[in-house]
Each structure stands twice: as C-alpha cells, then as structure tokens.
Design a protein that fits this description.
The complex is a heterodimer of chains A (285) and B (272). Chain A is of the alpha/beta class and 285 residues long. Chain A is built from nine helices and twelve strands.
C-alpha cells in the first residue's frame, strides 16, 4: 500500500459531488466529531440557479442507479452567501465542484471562488455523462477539458488544488488525464457516472457498484502511464475492500458517492478505516 | 430544524422486526430501532435498506410506542408493489434491517385547540394516525376522512375512533363506507367539520383535493407528499417537489428533506 498522500492538502476519502446534499444532511451520520475535517465536494455549482430536471430523476438498476438529476443548485451567489459559510463554520474542507456552459463561465466561477474564504479547492466537472443535454460545455475531446482546466487554473491560486473530474472512458482516459495535467490540474478524479439511458430512453448516467470495474480499469491505466499525476478513484466505493481496490491500482484517494445514498454513514466509516494512524493492511486484509 | 446533530437529528441504526401482520392488502411491521421512536414526530418517515438494492425504500410510520416488552417500537405500513417493498414485507420476526430515521419535516401542530380535518388514502394515510393522537392531546377536535380503492387497502379506521371525533370512510368501489373519492366529498366534510386546519396524506390527487378544499374554505392545509425518494436523507436530490416559496419565487425542493410535509398552498400541483 502506498502512503495515502496525494500532496493536495486533502484527505484520502472525500464525499463525491452531488451525493452529499448541501453537506448539512451528513452531519447526523458522521459521529460525535460531526463534519469537522470532512473532505466534501459540493454538488456542481453554476453561475445561475438551476432547478434541475423533472422526475423521475433516478431509476434503480441492478448494482446501481441511473440518474439525470440536472445539476440542481442555488447558483453561485446563494452558495457563497449561505451554504459555504455554514460548511466552513462546521469545519468542512470544502472542494467546490463547478460546472458551466462556456469557458468564460468556468473562469468566472473560479475567480469568484478564489476570493471566497474557506474554499479548499475546486473540482471541475468536465465529464458529466450528458453534458450537452444538461446545457454544459460539451467535452468530446481531451483538448476540450484541457481548455476548461487552463481557464480555471488561471483564475485560481496555485497553492490550492484544481481537480479535473473525468468520464471513465477507458479508450480516452489516459489522453484526457494527460491533457488536464498539462493544463494545470493538480489531480484527476476518475470517474464520473457512465453515460447510460433510463428504461424510457432518456439520457442519464450510471453510478454505483456496477461501474466500479470500469472506473478501476481507468484508474489503473492513468496511474500506470502518468505516475506523477495524483488520481482519485470514484465509482462504487462503498467499503474498505472497494476503496483498497482503487488504492492498490495506484489511486491516492477515493471519493464516496452513490454508497452514501444507500448508507449515509459510509464516508464516516471509511474515514476512520483509512485514517493515517491506522495501517489499512492490518485493519482490513 | 436545528443544525446540531443529537436528539433532534435522524440516526442510522440496525432495526429488528419484532412483529409482522398482514392487515388487508398491507403488511404491518413492528420494529425496534434504537433512538428512532424517541425522536419521531408525526409526518416523519424512515428509510430502509433492501438487500441487493442500491436505492432505499421510504416507509411511513403508522404508530410509535414509547414502551413495550421490546422497548420503544415503531410500526410501518408496507404495500408490496415491487421487488424492494416485497422484500421488506417478507421480513420475518427476528430479521434485522438497516434503518435511517426519523426523516423529513413533520406536521406542524396548532398552538391552540382548533378543529382539524385529517384526510388520507391508502397506506400513505399512515402518518395521520400518530398525528391524530397528538392533536387530541392538545384538545383539538379531530375529524378523519380515510379513503381507499377498496376495503383491503383501507388503513385501520377502527383504531382511529379513539382519537377522532368523527370518522368518515370512503371507498372507490363502495365495498365499505361511502362510495366515492376524496375530491367528491372533501368540501362537504370540511364545511361540516368547520375545521381550521386540513392535514392530508396520500396520493397526489388526494392531497391536491384536500389543499384545494382548504383554500376555498379559508383553512390552512398541510400535506405529506409521496414522491419516490431514492435516499430519503436529502443527499441525492432525486425527489423533486415543485413549490412556490414564501417570497413568491418558484423553486424545486427535495420532497424528503424539505418535505415531506409542506403547506398545501405552496405546492405547484400542475408541475408535480
């Protein structure tokens, strides 16, 4: 097992974007310490408020969920005025996920967030399963994500991390990760929900244990080809075993997403299990 | 709502089935769930983990006992409608399930001893029964309207006679009580009961009819909406509820965390 330090100033276990509500809802499930020290990626924040898509937004399938939630969020102003200060007061290490329709929007978001007290880092959502359908900047080629990352990096202080969250597409992931790295990403999060469809044919993304083998393959490829780039594994992490699979494949950390919808205590348990003072090898094998 | 976790917030615990009964078309499970009955307020719900499923199942709480030979317990009502609810309904005595609760915003209780009309249909009428007990404790005159497609899906109207001044039973097929729907009878019943507050729980058409009747009569209404909640805890944003805020601005809130109980006049029924 490698040392769980990606040099990002962040812990090895984070709450994945869009699976932690506003953050407050997790407080009841984090034990006596509450949210203090939790590495929390917010749901994607956009410049303007978004109501999100119509229901049903989530459909259960064997081993996972198909979702098309539509990035509901109160918009940057409201987030900065209410949610962010609350999270910072609670001791949460806040990584703000950002999403935009244009590179200009990503740059605006990064600039405004760089001045907000308590933002530990940014995660750039450049791999949404249905970006065009959701009205986001469409990422088809690695240079698309790279150009977004450089626009964000220019506006955000170099001493704070910018994570690129990528789609777990095995045939393109190494190229995509390399482009983001060269554009200034501090780390890549691999991956996002896998493009999928609801039973009625609507576009969505598949998440949960079903996607873990796909994301794991992607993480392994990136870690092998780009050993200098920290990789955070995301997809189907729900216990120590599934987290260790990513760490063994070369990830420097993991994000917990869909598992929180199944058991909201998952992230608290994994934080204890992967805390630096314990030896994961002894605890879990 | 408080920001401080503790006795106010929900807990995630291992619940144990201590009794299971089939009553008509529903399965009633009595569960021990340490900390949940103590925190429960009428209108709260619980989320149960189903083996082999990622999403959870939200269940209404029909009854809470502060003490029994098993300690504090809660009763949930399950209508087996798919593989998840079938699994829950099939759990035998002694089975253990992961349960989170109590979840959501409960019914707000009136400060004064006003007259209240409670309107419910099917298994989703469950939260009205603990509500009726609380209202009676406060000296409120409670009228109850329970409705169902047929007798098998009529929820425990007999038990409610203890806490309600009057009970009206409606079935769509006329198998018991008066034949008809809530929409056909609620205005009349509201006028007769002279209620100041209408509480409703059930499918959307019932809630809408109750909220509409309340508005016409100048009464307050609170409705417990039932939108499928994949997590139940407010984390996934998968249960959109279109509302109009106090400020007149249209919003989409989470039925599980910002509801399930909301003011009837705040719901944008046409968008639901």
């Amino acid at each position: 097992m490698t040392a769980l330090d990606h040099g990002l100033g962040l812990g090895p276990v984070m709450v994945a974007a869009g699976c932690g509500g506003t953050g407050r809802e997790l407080a009841s499930y984090c034990g006596p310490g509450g949210l203090d020290g939790l590495d929390f990626v917010t749901r994607s924040i956009t410049l303007d408020p978004r109501a999100g898509g119509p229901g049903p937004r989530i459909e259960e399938v064997p081993g996972g969920l198909v979702n098309a939630v539509g990035l509901p969020n109160p918009g940057l102003e409201h987030f900065l005025a209410t949610e962010l200060p609350w999270l910072v007061r609670a001791g949460v290490r806040v990584i703000v996920s950002i999403a935009g329709a244009t590179m200009g929007e990503y740059a605006d978001l990064a600039r405004r967030l760089s001045r907000a007290p308590g933002v530990a880092g940014l995660e750039v959502n450049v791999g949404a399963p249905d970006d065009a359908g959701a009205g986001l900047f469409e990422v088809r080629e690695p240079y698309h994500s790279a150009s977004v990352i450089s626009a964000v990096r220019r506006e955000f202080p170099v001493d704070r991390p910018v994570l690129a969250k990528l789609r777990p597409d095995v045939s393109r992931i190494v190229e995509g990760a390399r482009s983001c790295h060269e554009a200034g990403a501090s780390a890549v999060v691999v991956g996002n929900a896998v493009p999928a469809a609801f039973r009625d044919g609507r576009s969505g993304g598949l998440s949960g244990p079903a996607v873990a083998p796909v994301a794991l393959r992607c993480v392994a490829e990136v870690a092998r080809v780009l050993p200098e780039l920290p990789v955070i594994g995301c997809g189907g992490v729900h216990d120590l075993r599934s987290a260790n699979a990513y760490l063994d494949a070369g990830a420097t950390g993991v994000q917990v997403g869909t598992a929180l919808l199944h058991d909201p205590t998952t992230v608290a348990r994994l934080r204890v299990a992967l805390a630096p003072h314990t030896s994961p090898n002894e605890e879990t094998r | 709502m408080t920001d401080v976790p503790g006795v106010q917030g929900p807990v995630h615990v291992e619940a144990e089935v201590v009794a299971t009964r089939r009553i008509g078309g529903y399965r009633h499970l009595t569960l021990t769930a340490p900390g949940v009955p103590e925190r429960f307020r009428a209108g709260n719900f619980v989320a149960v983990t189903v083996a082999g499923h990622v999403a959870r199942r939200a269940l209404w709480v029909h009854r809470v006992r502060a003490s029994s030979s098993f300690g504090p317990t809660l009763d949930v009502v399950v209508e087996a409608r798919g593989s998840g609810t079938e699994w829950i309904a099939a759990q035998p005595v002694g089975a253990r399930v992961a349960l989170t609760g109590p979840l959501g915003r409960p019914f707000a209780l009136p400060k004064d001893a006003v007259s209240c009309l409670l309107v419910g249909e099917g298994y989703a009428a469950a939260p009205l029964f603990p509500l009726a007990e609380r209202l009676r404790e406060r000296g409120c005159a409670v009228s109850l309207l329970v409705s169902a497609p047929d007798e098998a899906r009529l929820l425990a109207a007999l038990e409610a006679r203890r806490s309600a001044r009057s009970v009206t039973v409606l079935t769509a097929d006329g198998s018991v009580g008066v034949r008809g729907t809530v929409a056909e009878h609620v205005d009349d019943l509201l006028a007769r009961s002279e209620a100041d507050v209408v509480y409703a729980a059930g499918p959307t058409p019932v809630l809408r009819a109750a909220a509409g009747a309340a508005e016409r009569a100048g009464a307050w209404s609170q409705v417990a909406v039932e939108v499928p909640a994949p997590c139940g805890t407010g984390l996934c944003h998968g249960c959109p509820l279109p509302v109009v805020g106090e400020d007149g601005v249209e919003r989409v809130v989470r039925a599980c965390a910002d509801g399930p109980v909301v003011r009837g006049d705040r719901v944008r029924w046409d968008s639901l």
